[in-house]
Amino acid sequence: MTDPRARVAVVFGGRSSEHAISCATAGGVLAAIDRARYEVIPVGVTRDGAFVLERDDPAVFGLDPEALPEVRDDGTRVRWPESASSRELTVRRPDGSTQSLGDVDVVLPILHGPFGEDGTIQGLFELVGLPYVGNGVLASALGMDKHFTKTVLEAAGVPVAPWVALTEADRRGDDTWLRRRVAGLGYPVFVKPARAGSSVGVTKVDGPDALDAALDTAFAEDSRVLVERGLEGRELEVGVLGARGGGGVRVSAVGEVIVTGRPFYDFAAKYLDAPGVDLVCPAELGDGERMDLERLAVRAFEAIDGRGLARIDVFLTGEGFVVNEINTMPGFTPISMFPRCWQESGLAYPDLITDLIEQAR
């Protein structure tokens, strides 16, 4: 008897420094996806970019601070369709034999960072004609690069924090120009890789003496770095989902990141349960503030030609809302802010996964 379920290829891992977080997200998705509706093909991407057929076992990908999850090369190789005329996935086994995995209805890429969240794998799916969850090539590329995100948002009239974009060439020889521009932002500043996520490579800098070390840390992750004015205000996050059934873009309840015992909301606080940060959803906002934030989130999402999903991170300052970042594949573990805010809005984690898959289909 033919299986009536749609076949979903869940792709995770990847070549970026966020490999382990992507694997942890996969653990959550594999545990929660509606198995009555979807047959899952788990496709892992090793740290050097090999596509392998992974185990369909959520327990393998738990986020343990002592042993972060990882896609290991078991010798299998998943092959994508050779053209847009087919949706068949195959796997080559270590003994050289090839097996069909059947036709894929949709791909769910839950990759974070470069070579996954930046438009590269989206381009692959476009080339072979596979429907996929989430943002397209342009929005993914824009959302991944903080410099170009800010450039596009600023052109669309969306308020962003002042910033300076730097390359390694800017540090060679006389760097008086560089230091003058950074000083013009006013300390403290945040130094960030332009194309990394999960706060990897990010440093808060309170004065010029700490600038060089922060730049070294950021340039270890990327060839372009942002130095961004530190903003005083509340740190808020809101989820966005693409339209379904003829409706408009949807916006979740608002979450708030309250930092009490750390310099900022860093990797350890996000994923390793480090102390000093509380995540609150829903955040306490007036009706007018919430409506203003919803409009701003939709405007930012549409400015980058968003599709599927995003998390919009903002600061509420004395002058109003300022967009900090757009995450086109936000943290998606069951305890991450994005699914938590949608749960507060009445969309449970398994239903959120279904919503995204059905958007793509």
Summarize the helices and strands and which ones pair or pack:
Blueprint: E1 6-13, H1 19-32, E2 38-45, E3 51-53, E4 77-79, E5 88-92, E6 98-103, E7 106-109, H2 120-128, H3 137-144, H4 146-155, E8 163-167, H5 176-185, E9 189-193, E10 203-205, H6 211-219, E11 224-229, E12 234-241, E13 250-259, H7 267-271, E14 277-280, H8 287-303, E15 309-317, E16 320-327, H9 337-344, H10 349-360
Parallel strand pairs: 1-2, 1-7
Antiparallel strand pairs: 2-3, 4-5, 5-6, 8-11, 9-10, 9-11, 12-13, 12-15, 13-14, 15-16
Describe what you observe in this structure:
The protein is an alpha+beta fold. It folds into 3 domains: 6-132, 3-Layer(aba) Sandwich (Rossmann fold); 142-159 and 233-360, ATP-grasp fold, B domain (D-amino Acid Aminotransferase, Chain A, domain 1, 2-Layer Sandwich), CATH 3.30.470; 163-229, Dna Ligase, domain 1 (2-Layer Sandwich), CATH 3.30.1490.20. The protein is built from 10 helices and 16 strands. It has helices spanning 19-32, 120-128, 137-144, 146-155, 176-185, 211-219, 267-271, 287-303, 337-344, 349-360; strands spanning 6-13, 38-45, 51-53, 77-79, 88-92, 98-103, 106-109, 163-167, 189-193, 203-205, 224-229, 234-241, 250-259, 277-280, 309-317, 320-327. Strands 14-13-12-15-16 form a 5-stranded antiparallel beta sheet. The protein has a 4-stranded mixed beta sheet with strand order 3-2-1-7, with helices on one face. Strand 2 (38-45) and strand 3 (51-53) form a beta hairpin. The longest helix is centred in the C-terminal third of the chain and has 17 residues, at 287-303. The protein is globular.
